[in-house]
Amino acid sequence: MSGAENPRSIRISARGCGNSAGSARFVNVVSNGQWSDDSIAEALMSGAADMVEISVDAGGKSAYESARSGASHDRLMRNLSRLREMKRSRASKTIIGIRLMIRPSTRSREREYLRAWSPLCDVIFAQYVSKPSILTDGEDMYTSSHELLGTTPHCSYPSRAMQIKADGSVPLCGINGHSPKDSAIMLGNILDSGIEELWKHPILSRYREAHGARVEALMPVCRGCPGA
Ligand code: SF4
Description:
six-stranded mixed sheet
């Protein structure tokens, strides 16, 4: 995942129960916490989402701002604080999560960063920032061994989550959603189809079953996955 995200991006993952017959049960909104309109915090804590996850970079203000073009660390801290206030005042059950992005340069202090950020949320977890190997060397990111070796990872993504991008489009998975057009698989758009219909989409079902049974021929885009 590239650290240079849209400074005001929000995306949604619907998490399900592992098969096409099941329904999407857990709605997870992921944001970089860069909104400038206070009503967004209110909407996020309205109870529509089960979890609101804020993606942040370990390493302090300068590391955060250099990883995210146009983003402001001060705005992030203000919005996080506003989110917590809103949760308290509304007695919202929505979980506030922090996804702490860890790079090779911050890996040795991962525990320290997790401890520092954890009072600001209900749950926290680390994610290692990876990059496709076609990007230039020297970037402060990991490269997936599956991409380097051309292997197919064991992956549960299609059984547990479905990403909805800010424009409503729904890719096969969060990783494939960043692929070039010729290899990206789009299942549809939430503005045109219901979430259940998309969750049961034949392509998503095929990838779910292919991963379960380890039939690589049925999941060609997963070979050399750069993010797993
Ligand atoms: S492309 Fe990667 S993340 Fe997506 S389903 Fe395949 S292995 Fe999983």
